[in-house]
Amino acid sequence: MNIRKTKIFVALFFLVFAMFLSNDFGLINIEKTAIVTALAIDKGEKYNYKITVQVAVPEAGNANTENPKATISGEGDTVAGALKDAGSLSGWYLKLSFCNLLIIGNSLTSDSVIKELDFFAKTLNVQDSSLVITTDNNASELLEKASPLDNISSFALQKVLLKEPGFDSEVLPIDLREFVNGIYSKSSSAYMPLVKMVKQDSSSSGESKSSGGSESKDEKVVFDATTTALFKNGIMVGMLNKEQTFILKMLKGLTTSTTFPISALKDGEQTNYLINALRTTPKIKVSADNFNLEVDIFIDVYCKVVDQNAPWQDSENSRNVPLDSEVINASKEKLEKDIKSLIEIIKQTDCDLLGITDSVYKYHYPYYNQVKDFCVKNFTEKISVNVKGQK
Length: 391
Prior knowledge:
The protein is built from 11 helices and 13 strands. By secondary structure, it is α/β, with parallel strands linked by helices.
């Protein structure tokens, strides 16, 4: 009996091994495969879509050869068709398993972007954890510009979008799965970073300049992702500025050791501070009855002073400094002001960033049909901010 089991096991092993050799080894042949690191989607000139992919193309026979800015473009009436066209024109097999960034161009945000993202959400070729962003330009421009942060622009973008826990960050990233789930939820709302290119002066005395003093072809840029685009039913309906993005991140409990500036009157002089929010504990509670909706927003912030421009410092080089009452009050005023500003945008755009509709559906379902059509625009808010420091 044991011999029979052994024979079956050996036969299955060789069968699986043969299938592996005949399929996967053929697909990831290093000389025929282009590893896609990022993908940009714009409106096409001849067809509905233009897809631009940034690829890592290895050079056979020379391990040191790089082509960091290699991009391939294709057009089609569907996203999949544009991808197929890009592969056909290049002669490479475009492997999407390592694609960690999807970029939506501004030419597509006035219509539902779900038409483009659905393909990536349903295919197994792209990771659900791929980041989703938009831009105020053509998406392809983000991949074609050179950046001093990294040889490959998509890697430079990911460095801006993703920070390790504990690192200062004012960016609110979102992945493909979370964005699509938000649009298909009861709130039909989601967001994504809106990335802007900031030009850098890359000229130096040792660099040669083109004739006539014109700009270099590879103009250096860095990326600003502190603006957040808001989407309702997949259509872009508004934007959050840097402060509103930061407060939304705090209300989602995603900030750890992140700084924000305040100004406070101390000893008769206006003093500027940089405050480090070491720990943030938000709580959002929704109460509903017949045609009435109240949202209680509470946030508890544990802070310390990082720096100040006062003529003299209380810190005396100590790491343990209690917060002055002036700093606590100024911090509370700033955070309350930013929350009110965020709520105003939510009501104007009908973009449910706080998950109010989902909360009513889950916890107050008897009132859902009465309030679902106006709950995001006409709710009453109650804001409470508690700022504390070391005792």
